[in-house]
Amino acid sequence: MQKTCGSTRPLYHFPVLQELIDEVQRERRDVENWLPVTSSRNARWWYSAFHNVTAMVGAGVLSLPSAMAYLTWGPGMALLALSWVVTLFTLWQLVEMHELEAEPGRRFNRYHELGQYVFGEKLGLWLVVPQQLIAMVGVDIVYVLAGGSSLMGAYDLLCTDPVGCHHIHKTAWIAIFGSVHFFLAQCPNFNSISIVSFSAAIMSVSYSMAAWIAPLCAGRVASVSYAVPAHESKSTAGIAYFGILNAVGQVAFAFAGHNVVLEIQASLPSTPETPSKVPMWRGCLLAYAVVALCYFPVAIVGYWAMGNGVGDNVLLSLGKPVWLLAVANLMVVMHVLGSYQIFAMPVFDMMESILVSKLEWNHTRFLRLWVRSLYVAFTIFVAITIPFFGDLVGFLGGIAFAPTTFLVNF
């Protein structure tokens, strides 16, 4: 039947328009299939487990006894347990919200996509992306510093010959560690770094075990004290106030990882019969069991053994045996190699998406090469020029990880 004037005709009456729409959708699919977050969806459930372990169980676990020194036994254990429960709950919420039941087939592959759905296109983008970038870029800079410092620590511990061993400045070690990422950064997506991530997860669990087994074997130090640390030049109240705030930030930093959860889940396949949330949640439960086995013993045993005399790194505070400290430093190096890539992958996705989708650049290997190399060079540059950036762990935990990890349910 001929349609009346003013009615809307089906698109098949306008073949040229339909072809244009099909072409746009085809180009959009091509871009999605090229971007790192969505280019591969054949991951297994255990991939999500060790990706989450690599992202969460970082070098920050070694500072948990130091946080306990300011929080003391009761509040410290309560905060640690509460953080574990709350972040597990918020993680479950993110996993559940990855796919919309009301719109089958729609997936929030990126953290900011979920934020835009909840808060609106513009507001959600400006609320989520800055915090997510501060968290991920900040972590990568801290990990470049940690990797360089750990390399230097292992070298200084193993090479003690005053004639044959020469002092190498930390700047050189940071550059050496960072240069490896110029190659690792060219891995296209999460699944392509699965071996690196798995190795990093093993290393993180290994040095976490060393961080509590060594103090347990050494026993408590003489005249151990569990009072809040004081300082000669400042009041105890002032030190306690800032120390407690920094300790809370350290705990928040230790439970980081939610910023990349949706991106990790995007690498899993999803069907109506088996949505991606099923294998993802299985991997998350395993990851959080590992987190509990790493965090609580390190915090409890480290604080029990050294009290308020423990430093920011419980292994360095122990001071011996030398071989264990050297091996632990090398384990930290292996771990931060993988965790750097886990946090960098969503940043790569954002940068490449803007260049390809917004600025309409061709998605080529050369584009990926220079974009990712530029990011790696930036993190190395900041780590070298601001060597105290690692001291801002508590600050980063407060302003970036707390909103995106603890406050998701609000």
Automatic annotation (TrEMBL):
Source organism per UniProt: Sphagnum jensenii
Domain Amino acid transporter transmembrane positions: 42-407
InterPro entries assigned: AA_transpt_TM
Keywords in alphabetical order: Amino-acid transport, Membrane, Transmembrane, Transmembrane helix, Transport
Name of a matching Pfam family: Aa_trans
PANTHER family: OS05G0424000 PROTEIN-RELATED
Keyword Phosphoprotein: no
Protein name: Amino acid transporter transmembrane domain-containing protein
Bilayer-crossing regions: 45-64, 76-95, 123-146, 285-306, 326-348, 369-386
Transmembrane found in the keyword field: yes
Main localization of the protein described in the UniProt heading: membrane
Localisation per UniProt entry: Membrane
